[in-house]
Queue: 2 jobs
Job 1
Amino acid sequence: MTEIAILGVGLIGGSLALSLRKNEDVHITGFDVVEENLRMARSLGVIDSGTTHLAEAVAQADYIFLCAPVGKLQELISFLRYTPLKEGAVISDTGSTKVSVMEHSHGFAQRGVFFIGGHPMAGSHKSGVEASHDRLFENAYYVLTPAKDTPTAVTDRLRELLAPTHAKVVVMNAQRHDEVVGAISHFPHIIASALVNQVASYSEADEMDWYRSLAAGGFRDITRIASSNPGMWRDILLNNRPVMKKMAEDLKQVMERISTLVERADGPGIERFFAEARTFRNALPEKKKGALQPYFDLYVDIPDEPGVIARVTTLLGEEKISITNISILETREDILGVLRISFRSHEDIEKATHVLKDEGYSVYERE
Ligand SMILES: NC(=O)C1=CN([C@@H]2O[C@H](COP(=O)(O)OP(=O)(O)OC[C@H]3O[C@@H](n4cnc5c(N)ncnc54)[C@H](O)[C@@H]3O)[C@@H](O)[C@H]2O)C=CC1
Ligand SMILES: O=C(O)C(=O)Cc1ccc(O)cc1
């Protein structure tokens, strides 16, 4: 039996647990600072057992995955440094930045414990275990940054364990990871939010609020990631400061260049600017289909009354709204539970929300 501890059972910890369960003979213990998250994870079948005692969660573990927010990883690593662990245990993390994690990864090898940084390069703007998915990492890159004293054979062992994620596991240096991922993932979040904030300030000053009404495809496409979790992105930026600072300075120069081209009405220069971008963008490798399609889930509080589930499904059926999946999450004391209903499209979610709210149900999309 392979014992796995997942520290931080949210979107990524939950999705990793669901993938790793596909290995033969694994037992997964979840640790989280929020007990409710562990209850939810158990009710969704994500973990086998859950505890809010960290030392207990890791004592027997062969693999320990740190899946907490980036800002909490150093604290967790420090705790593990002085906690009894199984000899031969492998510690890995899923944080979006790697240099600051690897700076704290020393001091394990002398105890026969190995540290390998990790970053599965797939996610969602949603968070929490409810949004976790066993195929989240399919076809995505999964970067490993082994500590200097971690033998290759141990990295290979972790690679094997990760096989059911169907991710493309690659080994990289932490500094290189932060530079590249800073450019293609972290900095774009700054750009998206900066643009939204700029438009929001124009919109506030506009009585008719045409900005909101006319917000079309282009604005929506480039700003999708501005809906991500602000706390998570704060942590990521704080842990990749040199790269973010350099990119912000470099972008200032690009903006200067564009501003000058526009001021001079330099048509060929402007066209060249767009053409250069198009050439690079069009040559990006095709994104392979994984499980990254958006989730169309709706949560409905269901009161403790007989026949309530049938009433909900009948209401939706009468409106010809198709359901692709339905499950009951029993998590709260004051109600029988929460119904999670999956649909094919966001349009169906909107229709269903309307119908169910009209009938007095408490309905929400968990962001
Ligand atoms: N969301 C995404 O798209 C991706 C996130 N990541 C990284 O994975 C990590 C987890 O992110 P998500 O799962 O999205 O976040 P999440 O918010 O869905 O889950 C984080 C979980 O960690 C728990 N937690 C908070 N403090 C903790 C602590 N001190 N010890 C143990 N658990 C603690 C929270 O209660 C929560 O259940 C982060 O480091 C993030 O940078 C990596 C790839 C993609
Ligand atoms: O939705 C998106 O495009 C993302 O940005 C997902 C994501 C978020 C954080 C990561 O560390 C890796 C991937």
Job 2
Amino acid sequence: MTDTSAVVSVTALSKRFGSVTAVDSVDFEVRENTIYGLLGRNGAGKTTLMQLLTGQDFASSGSINVFGASPVENPDVLSQICFIKESQKYPDEFRAKHVFKSAPWFFTNWDAAFAEELIEEFNVPLNRPIKKLSRGQLSAVGVIVGLASRAPLTFFDEPYLGLDAVARQIFYDRLLADYSEHPRTVILSTHLIDEVSNLLEHVLVIDQGRIIIDEEADALRGSATTVAGTRAAVERFTAGRTLLHSESIGGLASVTIQGQLSAFERADAADSGLELLPVSLQQLIVRSTNTSTHDFQASA
Ligand SMILES: Nc1ncnc2c1ncn2[C@@H]1O[C@H](COP(=O)(O)OP(=O)(O)OP(=O)(O)O)[C@@H](O)[C@H]1O
């Protein structure tokens, strides 16, 4: 069923490059005014999906609806989108200041005062040619454009990887503060899942071109538990459960299981001397996209 508050709606979408199927028949929706994480391993299809959603590439099959229409060569749709990526090209003669000066031509919601604050915070040398900026400074330019554009639909395809830990934290803090004042839809692609975990409201995990998780972040956070203790007690407690991961040393074992635990099961674990540990979003996604998991499940 199509959600009326969906800003993106994708049906049976595929993208093939010769024999490579980068996006494999995916269906999903993106709600308005929500921060999404688009997560997955290298080569999973994240960038390809973003290129399709922003009209920068053609689908091989399936349909894409963004703000009610196809994004391809559609100025009404594209004027509401900001796509920030590390490989962004700028005209040869551009200095950093030219990027910020030209941004209002593309983004109707551009906030020049906010951009100036960010330029100061990220220490961007405005007069330096873009080609001479360090990797981190170039990332900062992208991040500032992405934040100050206040586009109704903003994609960040890992442009902040060049930033150091302090600058990344500034980005996360500024994004969250500005988002609460000016709600919009943000889709972040990242490998630094633990860092962005608290920002995310909804998580899409793509693995080998397929969406394998499409879930509210809060629901996902409580959806797995690691059980640790003696091997015999762990085996008894986890019997019949979906196992995501298992480790054992000598007589001790640690097993990650999928699904919520009832109060009764928690009490049972405590009585059996078992420790129940929450699983971080990053661990959960690593467990879900790691092929050795399947080997483990098969042999468990
Ligand atoms: N133009 C292309 N020609 C051929 N194969 C391509 C092309 N673009 C992407 N691919 C392939 O499609 C798959 C998905 O690539 P994509 O860049 O979307 O992955 P990603 O999830 O963004 O990866 P990463 O996290 O490493 O950036 C990969 O196997 C990649 O090699």
